[in-house]
Amino acid sequence: MQELGLKTMPAQESRNGQQKEDPITIAELAILAQKKLPKQVWDYYASGADEENALRRNRSAFDRLLLRPRVFRDVSHVDTSTTIFGKKYPIPIGISPSAMQRLVGGNGEIDMARAAASRGTTMILSSHTTCTLEDVIQAPGADNPNRERCAQVITRAQAAGYKAIVLTVDTPVLGNRINERKTPLVLPPHLSLANIHQKINNPTTNVKPLKAKPTMNRILLEARTAQEAAEITRGNHDTLNDASLTWSNTMSWLRSKTNLKIILKGIMTAEDALLAIEHGADAIVVSNHGGRQLDSVPSTIEVLPEIVSAVRGRVPVIIDSGITRGSDVFKALALGADFALVGRSALWGLSYGGQEGVERVLDILERELSRTMALVGAGSIGEIGREMLGVEKMDGFGISRL
C-alpha cells in the first residue's frame, strides 16, 4: 500500500529557538489551537451545551466501537473514493459549516474552501460567514423578514454556482452553552456577517470604528423561551434562526425557491428521517450540532444504525459530530453512512496554518482511513461492512457483534 505523505509546512520555532515538528494528529492540532486562540474564541467553537455530556458522548461512543480485522485480503491498493449525488470524491470526508471562520485564522471561509477544493472534496458554507458566498465560491477556482432574507441568500447561492442548500433543522433556539455565556464572543470591528449584511464598520471610510458588538448567537443565549428568542430575532435582522419552522410550512416553501438539492442537517431519529424523505429532502445529515445544542442526547454514531435502516438507501445519509480520526470515518461507513463531515477538526487546522492547515487535516484523515481500511481488510469503500465492527460490552468481558 502506498503511504499518503503529509505536506511539510514552514517550520515553527519553540521558545528556546528549536524547530517544532508539524502535528500529525487532529488531537495535536486541537491542543495547538487552544494555546493560540483567544479564550472566548476557543470556548465558542470547542464548547458544548450545558454539562457537555453530548459533546463527550460523541467521542466516547466512537471509542466503544471496536474493529474486527480480517486477514489475507488483497489490500495492495486501497481506494478511499466514493460517489454521492453522481459526483466522485477521493475521500468520503467533507467539511461541516462553522460560523465566522476568520475569527479562527487566515482568510477564514475562503481558506477552508480552497483547502476542500485542493483535496477534491466539499465544504458546507455557513450562513453566518465573515466572507460573502460569492467570494467563497470563487476562491477555488416582509411578513417574515427571516424568510425574505433566506430567499435572498438562496437566490445568490444558486446564481453563484452552489450545488445544494443545507438547512440546519436543530436550532429553533440556541443551546445553553455555559462557557460561551461566561466568555462572550464579540465580532471585532473589521468583521461582519457578510451574507446577511450585518454592518459593523466600513473600513474604506475615515469614520471612527464602531465598538465591537456581541454576536447574535451571544444575544440569543439570553433568551429564556422560544417566543423571547423570536422577538429578539424580529428586532435584529442578522440571524436566520426561526422557531416557527415545521415540515408543512418549510420544505414546500424552500422547494419553491430553488432547484438546488436540499439537505437537512440535524436529523437524530428514524421518524424524522422518514419525514425528511416524505417531504422531498435529497439527503440528510445525522448531527447533534457537535453537542452544542441539546445535552443528554445520544451520539450521532449511536443513532446512525436506526436511521440507515429507516432510509433504506433512498437518500444519502451523511454524519458529523465527534469525528476526529480516520478510524471514526471507517466506523461510520461500516454502520451505513455514505459520507462524513468534520467541523472542529477543520477549524483547528485553519488556526494552525490557514489553507495549508486545513489541507493537513484532510490529509491526516485520509491517511488514517486508508491505513484502517488496509488493516481491517477493506480494499475499497464498498468492501466496508457492519461485520467489521464490534461493540464493547457494558457488562462483562468481550465484544458484541453488531
Task: Please outline what is shown here.
The protein is an alpha/beta fold. It has 14 helices and 15 strands. Helix 11 (270-278) packs across helix 12 and helix 13 (326-334) packs across helix 14.
Describe the overall structure.
- This protein has a single domain, classed as TIM Barrel (Alpha-Beta Barrel).
- Helix 1 packs antiparallel against helix 14.
- The protein has helices at residues 26-36, 39-46, 53-64, 109-118, 133-138, 145-160, 178-182, 216-220, 226-235, 247-257, 270-278, 300-311, 326-334, 344-376, and strands spanning 12-13, 19-20, 65-67, 82-84, 87-89, 93-95, 164-168, 186-187, 213-214, 261-267, 283-286, 317-319, 339-342, 389-392, 399-401.
- With 402 residues, the chain is α/β, with parallel strands linked by helices.
- The chain is 39% helix and 12% strand.
- Strand 4 and strand 5 form a beta hairpin.
- The strands form 5 sheets. It has a 6-stranded parallel beta sheet with strand order 6-13-12-11-10-7.
- It contains 14 helices and 15 strands.
- The longest helix is centred in the C-terminal third of the chain and has 33 residues, at 344-376.
- Residues 1-5 and 196-213 have low confidence and may be disordered.
- Keywords: Flavoprotein, FMN, Oxidoreductase.
- FMN binds at residues 97-99, 126, 168, 265, 287, 343-344.
- The active site is at residue 289.
